[in-house]
Every structure is written in C-alpha cells, then in structure tokens.
Amino acid sequence: MVIKEKLSEIVGSGSFSDDPKVLKAYAKDESLVTGTAPSYVVKPKSAEEIGKIIELANDQKVPVVPVSSQ
Predict the structure, then answer these.
(1) C-alpha distances in angstroms, 54 versus 17, 31, 32, 57, 67?
(2) More exposed terminus of the chain, fewer Cβ within 10 Å: N or C?
(3) Radius of gyration in angstroms for the set of CA atoms belonging to the chain, rounded to a whole number
(4) What does the alpha-carbon distance between residue 38 and residue 29 come to, in Å, rounded to a whole number?
C-alpha cells in the first residue's frame, strides 16, 4: 500500500487531499522563505490519528510539517 492510501485510510478521504489547488495553498507561509508545495495535506481529528501519521512518516522516512490556523 502506498503512503497516499495509508494516509487516506488513517484520516478518512474527507480529511486527505492531493488536489493541486489545496497543495498550493499550503506551499507558503508568512516567512520570507520560498515555499514548496507538499505532496499531501491531511487534517487529523484526534491525537490517535496524529500518532499514526507520525509513525507512518517515520517508517517511510517522510518529512512532516505541522500547520495550524489554516
């Protein structure tokens, strides 16, 4: 199973996105650093989901960038 499917399984399809428009919105912040679009955006609803996401990211050696207030 690929990471995309695993993330969608963890948070549900309604809390997962790989839509280019959504990814573009998360490619920048208020800093002066040039942003890079993420591969996926997930919006976990619980600490348990966050734990599973972090565990998956660690297993797959995938970086996680937390964002709040979006």
Answers:
(1) 17, 25, 27, 5, 14
(2) N
(3) 12
(4) 12
